[in-house]
Design a protein that fits this description.
single chain; 6-stranded parallel beta sheet; 3-stranded antiparallel beta sheet; 11 helices; binds ligand 6V0
């Protein structure tokens, strides 16, 4: 039995606790279980966050274990080592696959029937690992993928164009990491093709602006980590957005990481593409049109991931 009012978070570091804080304010759930190998950390975060609940909506927040999470509607996994300055997300892979080997089987053992939302990095590899280890239907294992990167893209484009980022329709797809790509060919602002909108706002050097903004987005995590050692608010809001799409069965299109089954010629790999997300998790990938260069870049991104997956012992 799934309790639609319950969420669990595994890993209560910067990302887990910020996500818990965002979810507490969302009103989506009335019970939240926090799990961490560092039990004191989970207990401290549960207490601290629960003291904010009287200002939001009533909620039971407590440190627990996997048995407590068995009937949760969503388990968010943010456990794992984080990137150090200069370290790529892929450098993290072996450390975090080993951590997943201790977490995912415990989720499996308690008979979890909800949606497993993977946030730990490298998120595409770990989403793939979680699909393999959990025994859950692949539609119920979702990686946060490039949801955050796409938010960063919208934010940067909104600032560049002097327009509400929510009116910007543009995606980052591929690996959540160094090989990700912006889909410029179909980007638009409320239906107006991006280049037309740019010219309307006095920007004519499209190639240079696109390169600058795509680089800014790709390097955002490195820049933040260099300055404050971790990134967590942007991803916490992404987790809240994803949980909302799931719990409200919104069927919202979000660029999550999920198992590809032949789309764009990609198979047996978890990677981000715009996807319809609802109460049952991944409903289907949306075949956004890509130009020839974008398709080639997507394939390069997928093979970079595949090379890593092939080296990992799941
Ligand atoms: P952190 O602050 O070090 O927190 C990690 C937490 O995980 C700690 O509290 C650990 O005690 C806990 N932990 C470790 N092993 C286990 C285990 N076996 N079971 C339960 N808990 C465990 O790291 P931070 O919160 O900054 O980052 C967590 C992960 O999120 C990292 O892999 C980041 O790279 C990743 N991020 C992913 C993003 C995305 O867009 N997908 C964005 C930002 C960070």
């Amino acid at each position: 039995m799934v309790n639609d009012r319950k969420v669990a978070i595994v890993g209560c570091g910067f990302v887990g606790s910020s996500s818990a804080f965002a979810l507490m304010q969302s009103g989506l759930f009335s019970e939240m279980v926090l799990i961490d190998v560092d039990r004191d950390r989970a207990e401290g975060e549960a207490l601290d966050i629960s003291h904010g609940a009287p200002f939001a909506s009533p909620m039971k927040i407590y440190a627990g274990d996997y048995k407590d999470a068995a009937d949760a509607a969503i388990i968010v996994v943010t456990a794992g080592a984080a990137q150090k300055p200069g370290e790529t997300r892929l450098d993290l892979v072996n450390k975090n696959v080993n951590i997943f080997k201790s977490i995912i089987p415990q989720i499996r053992e308690v008979g979890f029937e909800g949606i497993l939302l993977i946030v730990s990095n490298p998120v595409d590899v770990l989403t793939y690992a979680a699909i393999k280890m959990s025994g859950l239907p692949e539609s119920r294992v979702i990686g946060s993928g490039t949801v955050l990167d796409s938010a960063r893209l919208k934010d940067a484009l909104g600032a560049h164009l002097g327009v509400d980022p929510r009116n910007v329709h543009a995606y980052i797809i591929g690996e959540h990491g160094d090989s990700e790509l912006a889909v410029w060919s179909s980007a638009n602002v409320s239906g107006v093709p991006l280049h037309d909108f740019c010219e309307m706002r006095g920007h004519f050097d499209h190639e240079a602006s696109e390169k600058r903004i795509a680089d800014e987005v790709k390097n955002a995590a490195y820049e933040i980590i260099n300055k404050k050692h971790a990134t967590y608010y942007g991803i916490a809001m992404s987790v809240k957005r994803l949980c909302t799409a799931i719990m409200r069965d919104e069927k919202h299109i979000l660029p999550v990481s999920s198992l590809m089954v032949g789309e764009y010629g990609l198979e047996d790999i978890a990677i981000s593409m715009p996807t319809i997300v609802g109460r049952n998790g991944v409903e289907c990938r949306v075949p956004v049109s890509l130009d020839e260069d974008e398709l080639a870049e997507l394939h390069r991104s997928a093979s970079a991931l595949k090379d890593v997956i092939d080296q990992v012992d799941f």
